[in-house]
Amino acid sequence: MKLFFASDLHGSLPATEKAIELFNASGADTFVLLGDVLNHGPRNAIPEGYNPPVVAEKLNTIADSIIAVRGNCDSEVDQMLLSFPMMSDYAWVMLPGGQRLFLTHGHLYNSDKRPALRANDVIAHGHTHVPIAEKDGKQFIFNPGSMTIPRNGNPASYGLFEGKTLKVVSVEGEVLRSVELS
């Protein structure tokens, strides 16, 4: 099982095209979108290449590979443009060996406000635009950062899960964060 993660695309066509290119090159089975797909929201500047309708068209070309959750900037109007569901606040993915991966955007559940998780489960979220891959207490925290609006001096980034490793990778290919699941 190999998963590709992106979060907080915020309607940027160049970031979306790069994410799809990296997904295709990664050999991942599934493209996990952790919310804030089409709109930039009132707190963010309009991103480079902002073009939500074309971003939707591009993502729809890989719709059968996408698992998506709703971000705080996503709405029912956005869902009308997309051919994959993205209005759920969270989703679960079962990992090999029985671990669970809880997918959410981060505005409702996050590393500080977790749902009921078991030891060694993973909470994967975006929202902060800051990459994280670490064990925190009994669970793992994972955030792929943002390809569109990275924060705290971090480069544009995405995430990968393969084998037992979660990692955050810059669009240039540098591993920024990595954690081995136990």
UniProtKB/TrEMBL annotation:
Limits of the Calcineurin-like phosphoesterase domain: 1-163
Which Gene Ontology MF annotations are present? hydrolase activity; metal ion binding
Q: Which cofactor does it need?
A: a divalent metal cation
Q: Name one Pfam family in it.
A: Metallophos_2
| CDD domains the record matches | MPP_YfcE (cd00841)
* Keyword terms, alphabetized: Hydrolase, Metal-binding
Can you name this protein?
Phosphoesterase
